[in-house]
Write a structure and sequence with these properties.
The chain is α/β, with parallel strands linked by helices. The protein has 2 domains: about 50 residues, no CATH class; about 290 residues, P-loop containing nucleotide triphosphate hydrolases (Rossmann fold). Helices cover about 50% and strands about 5% of the residues. It has 16 helices and 5 strands. The protein has a 5-stranded parallel beta sheet, sandwiched between helices. The protein starts with a helix and ends with a helix. GO terms for molecular function: sulfotransferase activity. Keywords: Transferase. This is Sulfotransferase family protein.
């Protein structure tokens, strides 16, 4: 334990010294961001060191049935899932599991392909076994659990960015899951990914088309669109197409009462009411699950936000994408979305139109 405290002290000293060296070169917002990143790195290092101790605490909570309530927040990368997860867990009530189904960052999930599709009635023993461990709170991992420092929890909050295409399959096998699908404007998502090309994203939509069962069930009508978009290799348009597929499929699969659809833009505009709505779904009640977040919590950047984010450039994260693309790119992106019936999902103010969901879900 003394060694752990010493290492923590050295990490903290490095963070402070790094920030002091950079103070004359960075604005206050960027200094705070760099400090936040460094602290996150420290948390991961300590998480590895403290894993044996933390695992005892986490398993004790499982034995006490503290994980009965399971929220699964799914969405595309760069769609705000980390920020929304932080808001949902503002009081640190939940044990937060950060992207346990990530096929690259979590070794135990390396058997999964990015955005792997699993048919609802298919048997997938390997995935079902490890999913059972995740959804019961048995599974532990230094990165997945790096934000957990409490002794007692009142549920699980799991967030993932590669699980949209097997979420419905999981919901059938684990009916206690409360699934929240977070959607963000595809142009915003594509722009954000383009600024993080060195991160782990799916970049070629052909890899989705090549999943035979996904092709048979959903992608056959879009075969030529996918091949053409892949061949043209426009990064933004490929991301918009991938966004379309990984959101279109769960929207077609889930009945409205089996998933809560949240929009990043609505949470950004009215976080208290949107979180209250999410918790009414989780609690399965019509009663008012009132949430009142303070401004500091709402405006606190997530651990994965970068200094090129619109939040640090005095730009709106809802509409700033419009200044980054040409009209030709926007028209091409809308043409892709239109093929999936998603072109009208956002209005001219980049706010969601929920009526479009009814059409997609066949209501």
């Amino acid at each position: 334990m003394k060694l752990i405290i010493k290492i923590s002290s050295l990490c903290h000293h490095f963070i402070l010294s790094t920030n002091n060296r950079d103070v004359s070169f960075c604005c206050l917002a960027n200094r705070k961001l760099e400090r936040k990143k460094a602290v996150h790195i420290e948390q991961i290092i300590l998480s590895h060191l403290l894993k044996p101790v933390r695992d005892v605490t986490l398993h004790a909570n499982r034995l006490l049935d503290n994980y009965d309530e399971v929220i699964w927040l799914i969405g595309d990368g760069r769609s705000g899932t980390t920020w929304v997860s932080d808001l949902l867990n503002h009081d640190r009530k939940y044990r937060e599991m950060f992207e346990p189904f990530h096929p690259q960052h979590v070794d135990e999930m390396s058997f999964l392909s990015p955005h792997e599709y699993v048919r609802p009635d298919d048997s997938h023993d390997q995935l079902e076994r490890i999913a059972a461990d995740v959804f019961s709170g048995t599974f532990t991992h230094p990165v997945v659990d790096s934000a957990n420092h409490s002794h007692f929890y009142g549920g699980l909050l799991i967030k993932d960015i590669f699980a949209n295409l097997f979420a419905y399959w999981a919901s059938i096998r684990f009916p206690n899951l409360k699934i929240i699908l977070l959607i963000r404007n595809p142009f915003s998502v594509a722009l954000s990914k383009s600024k993080k090309k060195d991160w782990f994203w799916l970049t070629d939509p052909m890899l989705l088309l090549n999943q035979q069962k996904l092709y048979d069930d959903y992608l056959h009508p879009f075969e030529e669109l996918i091949k053409k978009t892949s061949e043209n290799n426009d990064y933004i348009l490929c991301q918009i197409l991938i966004w379309s597929i990984i959101n279109y499929v769960p929207l077609r699969q889930f009945a409205p009462d089996k998933v809560h659809i949240a929009f990043y833009e609505e949470v950004f505009a009215d976080p208290n009411n949107q979180l209250s709505s999410a918790f009414r779904f989780v609690k399965n009640t019509r009663e008012n699950c009132h949430v009142e977040l303070d401004e500091e919590t709402i405006k606190r950047p997530s651990r994965v936000v970068s200094k090129d984010s619109s939040l640090f450039q005095d730009k709106s994260p809802v509409t700033s994408w419009k200044n980054e693309f040409s009209l030709k790119q926007i028209d091409a992106g809308l043409s892709i979305l239109d093929e999936f019936g998603l072109a009208e999902l956002y209005d001219e103010n980049s706010m969601p139109n929920r009526k479009v969901l009814n059409t997609i879900q066949g209501l």
